[in-house]
Structures are given as C-alpha cells and as structure tokens.
Amino acid sequence: MSDVHIDGGERNAARTRQVVDYLAALPGQIDAVVISGDLTQIGRPVDYAALREILAPLEVPVLCCPGNHDERGAFRAGMLGLEEGSGPVNQAHEVAGASILLCDSLIPGSDAGRLGPETLSWLDSALTRSDGPAFVVLHHPPVAVGIPELDAIRLQDADDLAAVLARHPRVAGVLCGHVHAAVATTFAGVPVRVAPGVKSTTTLPWEHTGDPTNLDLPVGLAFHHHENDVLTTHFRSL
Ligand SMILES: [Fe+2]
Ligand SMILES: [Fe+2]
Questions:
Q1: pLDDT tens, 161-174?
Q2: Which ligand minimizes its atom distance to the CA of 200?
Q3: What's the gap in Å between 75 CA and the centre of ligand 2?
Q4: Residue at 106 is within a domain
Q5: Residue 83 pLDDT level (bands cut at 50, 70, 90)
Q6: What is the 10 CA–ligand 1 centroid distance (Å)?
Q7: Ligand 2 centroid vs 135 CA: distance in angstroms?
Q8: 214-226 b/e with 16+ CB inside 10 Å = b?
Q9: Does the keyword Metal-binding apply (predicted)?
Q10: 86 pLDDT exceeds 80?
Q11: What is residue 143's three-state secondary structure?
Q12: How many structural domains comprise the chain?
C-alpha cells in the first residue's frame, strides 16, 4: 500500500484503516506489508503515532520507507523507534527468502526524489550481502508514467539507480508510490509496480480537465506474488 497521508483528519485515517482491516481479516497468510512512503501529510510526530495505532492489527512485518511528505527525524523516531537524525533512512529486511530493501528518496523541502551517492552505495552493498530475490522499495518512481504533474517530480538520479540494478540481476522488482495510482511498468529491464494511493487517485491527462486528483475513487492496494523468478501483481480496490 502507499501514500496514506495521515494528517490528523478522519478521512485519510479511515481509508488507511479500511486497507488494514481488510488485510488483518484475510483468512490466509501474507508475508509482509510494505508502505511505500508519504505516511503522513506533513511529517508530524503525532501523525506517525496515529499511523502506528492504525497498523497495530497487522500481525506481519510492516515495512515503510519515507516519501516527500514525510520528515526523516519524525519518521525514524515514530515508525522505527530510532533516535532522530537527518541522514537517509535505508533499511534491509529478509522476508520469506527475499530481501526487501527500502531506500530513502526524499529531498528535504522538495517534492521530487533523489537517492544520492550514500543511499545508492548502501543499496549496492545490501544487494551483494545475500542472494535470492530482492525487491527495491522507494517512494519516487524512476520512470515517467504518463502523468505530467507526477513525472515532473519523479526520481532525479534514475540513471545511477539503473547502474546499480544492472550489477544485480537478483532484483526482482522495484516497488514505488508517489503517483497515487496503480501502475505497472519497467525500468532498466526490471518490473516496476506503483501501489495505488490510499489517500486519493491521480487520474490520467485524458480523464480530467484541471486537477488530476480524484478523492472519490475507491481505496486500493497491490498484492505482489513472486514465483519462478516472475513478479506478478494483483491490484485490489476496496
Ligand atoms: Fe503521496
Ligand atoms: Fe509523494
């Protein structure tokens, strides 16, 4: 799931709860929940605390990366229980035989994304540390998706990410958010999946005149299934 934008209001919290309740009530097992950034609207500690409470019913690991609307220090403290700090928040997790590598693409004060040398070299070494499939999670998609408003604020150093991915064929997918739309594409020969936005849906240029943000479409999520070296994604609207 992605872009829950918790803001102190009831609406976004209710939509997030809708996804969490759905996942928590599944009769079968999933391995983990990934939230690909924009956890809050403006990065307040109180909003991370509220989100933690909303996510509490989930009994699987919940892995989060920050987005442009997040604040690193508050994210680090509120979601990871770590001391506040200003550097990028990168995390490696092993789940069900796969590596989930969550990269921090936020640029303080900007809506665009950038991984930067520190995070790229962290990713490069994290990818050499084990084998098996790896999923790279970052908020900002590294490719244009055909929505001008979002393409203008996508990942800036995508070429550098492509160079890292080229060295590691074990990367099975790149999982993003930021677009607020369910999107499937490819980047550097790797499948890219953008999870739908919990808060809203960004419509396509030929679907609107004016503001592309649609608040009325249903809340959604993506299920990722990896088998025989193939990533298959099922998108679900609730
Ligand atoms: Fe967002
Ligand atoms: Fe975003």
A1: 999 999 999 999 99
A2: 1
A3: 14
A4: yes
A5: confident
A6: 17
A7: 19
A8: eeeeebbbbebeb
A9: yes
A10: no
A11: coil
A12: 1
Confidence (pLDDT) at 12: 98
- Rounded-to-integer distance, Cα 149 and Cα 179, Å: 9
133 part of a folded domain? yes
Are 35 and 70 spatial neighbours (Cβ–Cβ below 8 Å)? no
pLDDT of residue 84: 73
Map tokens 């790279």 to a residue: 136
Which pLDDT value is given to residue 85? Answer: 74
Mean per-residue pLDDT, 18-36: 98
pTM of the model: 0.97
Neighbours of ion ligand 2 (CB under 5 A): 38, 67-68, 178
Q: What's the CATH number where 54 sits?
A: 3.60.21.10
Q: Give the whole-angstrom CA distance, residue 127 versus residue 135.
A: 10
Range of the domain at 45: 10-212
By DSSP bridging, strand 171-176 and strand 190-194 are: parallel
